[in-house]
């Protein structure tokens, strides 16, 4: 009897995970070739941040910290629900860098505000997708590593006294994150599309 209940509980949890990810319309499309809502807004956020801060990409080389390529590569091997959690947490990390401080950034303030509105909308939609996702141990480990990365970005800003050059360097890193998340979103969309075909 107990074994039967445990098996049934496992099936319900599995279906819950699948339904949550499958129901995330923000990340998927009916057609693999079209962009998801996430990708449309992702392109917008990349464009607005790039326009807000002049030539931020070339500033990245001045940073001594390593970009977390390993964490992106690791999450790429996981399931769609893990992609969603990773993307949500990364965007929250980006938002924490700017919130309450972006007025000091030596960038076009209007473009920067639009960028932050884009990120805020992404977070809101992804929170709806992630509300029933149970965090796994693997996700926790990846999240911890990413947390250290974002803390180092904040420390860098403080060490530069929030200088225009410091903000430009941070913008370069953030753009790199946004582009990696956009690539991850393509994989998420494909995985969700394939899951829909299976059921």
Explain this structure.
This protein is mainly α. The chain has 7 helices and no strands. It has helices at about 1-20, 35-50, 70-75, 80-100, 110-130, 135-160, 165-199. Helix 4 (about 80-100) packs parallel to helix 6. The longest helix has about 35 residues, at about 165-199. The two termini are about 30 Å apart. The model is unreliable at about 1-20 (pLDDT under 50).
Keywords:
about 200 residues, mainly alpha, 7 helices, disordered N terminus
Query: Main beta sheet, described?
Result: none
Radius of gyration: 18 Å
Distance between the termini: 29 Å
How many β-strand stretches? 0
Q: What is the overall pLDDT average? A: 82
The succession of helices and strands, N to C, reads HHHHHHH
Please state the overall shape, judged from the principal axes of the Cα atoms. globular
Q: Could you write a compact summary of the structure shown?
A:
The protein has helices spanning about 1-20, 35-50, 70-75, 80-100, 110-130, 135-160, 165-199. It is mainly α.
SSE blueprint and pairings:
Blueprint: H1 2-22, H2 37-52, H3 69-76, H4 80-98, H5 109-130, H6 137-159, H7 164-198
Helix pairs in contact: 2-5, 2-7, 4-5, 4-6, 4-7
């Amino acid at each position: 009897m107990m074994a039967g209940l445990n098996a049934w509980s496992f099936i319900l949890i599995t279906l819950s995970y699948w339904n949550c990810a499958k129901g995330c319309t923000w990340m998927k499309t009916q057609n693999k070739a079209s962009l998801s809502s996430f990708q449309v807004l992702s392109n917008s956020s990349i464009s607005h941040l790039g326009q807000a801060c002049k030539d931020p990409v070339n500033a990245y080389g001045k940073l001594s910290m390593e970009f977390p390529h390993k964490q992106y590569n690791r999450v790429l091997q996981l399931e769609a629900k893990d992609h969603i959690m990773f993307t949500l947490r990364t965007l929250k990390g980006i938002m924490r860098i700017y919130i309450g401080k972006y007025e000091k950034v030596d960038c076009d303030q209007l473009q920067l505000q639009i960028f932050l509105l884009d990120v805020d909308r992404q977070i809101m939609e992804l929170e709806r997708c992630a509300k029933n996702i149970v965090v796994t141990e693997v996700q926790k480990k990846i999240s911890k590593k990413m947390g250290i990365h974002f803390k180092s970005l904040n420390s860098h800003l403080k060490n530069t006294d929030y200088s225009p050059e410091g903000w430009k360097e941070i913008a370069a890193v953030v753009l790199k994150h946004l582009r990696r998340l956009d690539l991850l979103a393509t994989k998420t969309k494909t995985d969700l599309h394939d899951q829909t075909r299976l059921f």
